[in-house]
Structure formats: C-alpha cells, structure tokens
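PROTEIN ENTRY
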Amino acid sequence: MANCNENIGVAHDFVSNLQIEAIQTVMPMKQTDPRISRRVFIGENPGSGNFQRRFHMVFCYNKVSETDSGSMVAGWIKESLGKALVEKPLLAGRLRSIGENDTNYGEFEIVSNDSGVRLIEAEIQMNFDDFIHLKEKKNIEGQLVFWDDIHEPNTPYSPLFYVQVTNFKCGKYSVGISCSLFLEDPYSMTSFLNRWSKIHINMVSEADAPKIPTFFLPKLRRKGCSSPTLYSSLNTSNYHVNDTLIFKLPLKILNLSDDINKNNLVEKCVEEVENKYGKNLSTKLCLFVRETSEDVNVETFTREGINSFGSIKNGLISANYLDDLGLADNMRFNEENKAIHFSCWIINPGNEDLLLITPSPGDESGSQKNVIVTMRD
C-alpha cells in the first residue's frame, strides 16, 4: 500500500500539480415523467452574482485496500449517482429564463433531467498528509471542488451540480461536491447524500457486481499514453473566506408570507451573528427564501428601520456550523471507510452578506425552518 507519510508539512505547489483527467456527464438512469420544475424569482437583482452563489463540500478518504482508489470510486459514482438522481432529478437540471417581458423579468425555471451532473476526475501530485498538516487549508480545498461560472444568456448550458474525485499522490482521495443554492442548501443536501451513499454501497457490494466498474479510467486509458491536461487554471472563486452560522426554528413561529414577521426574523438572526463574531453585517443583505413549494425567491433585505422579533428568542437555536452537519460519518463509498476529513463552505461572491431561509430536511409540514447566515470577511 502507498506510503502517505512522506514530507509531512511540506508546502507543495498544489495548483500547478492539479490535473483534470476526465470530465463526464451523469444523467438520471430513468426518464423523469412527468418532468418537474422549480421557479426561481430573482426580481430586481438579476446580477450574475446570484448565479454563482453555491456551496462546496469536501470528503477525504483513506486507501483501505490495494484495489481501492479514487479512480475506482469515480467509476462506480458514474453508475450510483445515476441511480440516486432518479429520486432527485432536479440536481441534473438546467436553469432557463422565462422572463421575456417586463412583467416577469428576472424569473427563471430549473427544469429536471436536462443538463446533467458533471463528474470530474483529477490527480494531484501531493500527499494527503502534506495537505492535512498545512495550517491554512482553505485555498487548497478550493481546488478539490469544481465550478464553472453561470452567465446569461447561456444558463441553459450550465450544470448546477458537480462532483470531483481527486487522487492524492499517496493513494488517498477526496470527493468534492459543488451545488448551486438554487437547487439545495447544505442542510437539505444531507438527505440526498446519505441516500446516494446507501445506493452506492449496496450496488458495489452486490454478489454479481463486477470487480471493475465500466467507467474505470485507468482501464480506458491507452497504454503508454499520458493524460492531457484538460483544466488546470487557478480557480480562486472556490476559496472559502466566509463565516457561516445556522439557526434552527423547531416550531412554526411565524408565517414567512408576512413580510413584517419575515423581516423581524431576519434581523434577529443577523443580530445574533453580529454578537457572535463581534462584527457588523451590511445594511443590505441578499435573502434566499425557499418554501415547501420548492420555489426560490431572491430578494434584497434592507435592515434600516427593522427591529428584531423578541418573541422568537426562545425558539431560536443557534451556533451550529456547516462542519457540524454529521456527514463525515455517514457519507461513505465503502462501508468500512468513513471520511477522515470533511469541510463545507458557502460561496457568496456578491458585495452583500447572505441569508437563506429553507425548510428542514424531511419536514413535509413546513413547520421547521433553517436560517443560514453567511458573513463576508
């Protein structure tokens, strides 16, 4: 088995040694019928910053056997993800404008089962232990995920969900997730990832499963031919420099359709974040609201003249962080191999702080809400 303990703590030129080996598209294995869609209302703020708001997750794993590798996992992901997407076809969807006139300008629609999920396989000439012992990992983690910016009028051709499998020099590997906030937030994504993990493990452990997946890159590569560098630019937009806090509202203490109650809730959460970090947030925030109807509303929230809603204090549970999602133990591609490193962050490229109000996973009644506040540096 490969030795991963060489040159611990040595800083390598990570970016120059990152090479994309393959890019594939993963579609749901069954046609979605009838097609489902989700409306996205951007309103008066159709700027490109809204299209780039997303979250990233990185899971790192040991090499548990001689046959285990990132390439092996990527080959099986091509199949297991296709099965998982049958239950969540919007993740393979595309974003298209439906605002053709002044009455619905800024309105978009995500159509299921269109653009597909991009699956990236990469290699890095760096040992995992060199990476994990670095004091500052944020910039490096940004290279373990993939994102291609979305721009109008080409939104129908841009994926909203990416998976990148990166092989470290020592044999360990990472799986990076990138997902548009139009699709999911980190909390709502946990249920899909847990389900996908179970599908993957069950598929690989089947008695009649082949030892090598169909889309195993080393098997497809010609002998004596090195892989071309498909993509190796410095993607600084993936670097996470934002602090995020998550608030849980265990009871339906307000009606979000009531602007006064919604504004009071937002201000209360913002004040909690300011007290936690000792820093003032911007007077205007970008507000993402997703109700149980699945529609997404993107608004500008102005704090001037808004008072916090004191009566919700006892129902507000705070101080949860994105790294506390519980995914490190559950997101596995091998039953015996749990993640040895996990990180999650939100990208907010705009000039405003970001706040998301979303339903809690598995709560069909809509009585529980998550409020996620991301503060820019």
Observations:
- The mean pLDDT is 81.
- The longest strand covers residues 18-26.
- The helical segments are 48-52, 70-84, 128-132, 138-141, 186-205, 217-220, 259-277, 327-330.
